[in-house]
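User: Hello! My lab partner asked me to get a predicted holo structure for this protein. The small molecule is magnesium ion, SMILES included with the sequence. Please write out the structure tokens.
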Amino acid sequence: MFETAIKPEKAILVGIIRKKETEETVYQNLNELAFLADTAGAEVIMRVTQKIDPPNSRTFIGSGKLKELVDICVEKEPDLIIFDDELSPTQIRNLDRELKCKIIDRTSLILDIFAKRAKTAQARTQVELAQYQYLLPRLTRMWTHLERQRGGIGLRGPGETEIETDRRAIRNKIAVLKRKLESIDRQNTVQRGQRTQKVRVALVGYTNAGKSTTMNFLSKADVFAEDKLFATIDTTVRNVVIDQITFLLSDTVGFIRKLPHKLIESFKSTLDEVREADIIVHVADISHPDFEQQLHTVNQTLEEMNVHHKPTLLLLNKMDKLEPDAEAFRFSSPHPHLFVSVTKRINTEKFRQLLLQMVVETYRKVYPHYPLKVTD
Ligand SMILES: Nc1nc2c(ncn2[C@@H]2O[C@H](COP(=O)(O)OP(=O)(O)OP(=O)(O)O)[C@@H](O)[C@H]2O)c(=O)[nH]1
Ligand SMILES: [Mg+2]
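Assistant: Hello! Below are the structure tokens for the protein in complex with magnesium ion.
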């Protein structure tokens, strides 16, 4: 409630261009970081980039660039500086000392958004666990000169109240959270077990691709969807009926490039819905300038989760945002795919029928006793 009244924090974004990267890639990466910053409630006032590979182990950026950034800080007085990569504790400490400004990295920015958005006990516990794990090696003298009471981006959640407590307390907290998660997981496994004999479909995809919108379209459920990154953190499962065939549909957290490792680990149980699904609907935003990279990130994550062999339908969403002769329409894949606009209802009936076909096939194969009422 108070958030809207608070002045947005002024942020400077910093990204580096590695040998294999082009300026265009880094430009897109920083666009995404700006979107994340905006979602967290910051106002981006400037972007700074540097060609450096490998990054400086002490200060991430080179010494010349750091001096430049010190001057920029004096002139622009930002509230925080956001780096597009995960920084080591040493790098944060050194940057903090030189720049005298709150330094946060991509990981803590994502964790901050997750903390703000998580609603269920499971998601909250998962985020809290990831935040403590991130905080543990970074406890020493972090942000000592800052007004800690104010909190704000990167300091919400456990960092705000527990920054002074020692590592032992944090370790204990981590152990408690892990136990709590295990107990929630056990309950969820029981619940999932009770949902037997029904085909399960999981919506996956890059954040903001339109998964929740698709869920709402198919199930008429009221799932929170908006033009922000990570609108969904909690998993939702709904019963969907198409032509009298019932199946379960789940909507989960979106994927993102450079997703914090610890976060994936603590979100394992959320991703169980995907692991246990019979069919995967991969929702992608075909109108996004970084579409190919996003597709790659999602496919890579699906491979890491070892679910890439499941029957998958690729939904190329937001086609309404493309010009009719757009290059993107030439996209093709050996796997089933369909151009749609879920909000404008373009090709959505075709999508429903295609999905129904996959569901029926799965019932025949996996649950041969399911009373299918369709005639074909
Ligand atoms: N133009 C256009 N916008 C769409 C379409 N589908 C979804 N959107 C918009 O895209 C934004 C993101 O949609 P969501 O459904 O919240 O996306 P999501 O994949 O669930 O995102 P996260 O939960 O953040 O990972 C919303 O503003 C939607 O209204 C579409 O077909 N066309
Ligand atoms: Mg969503």
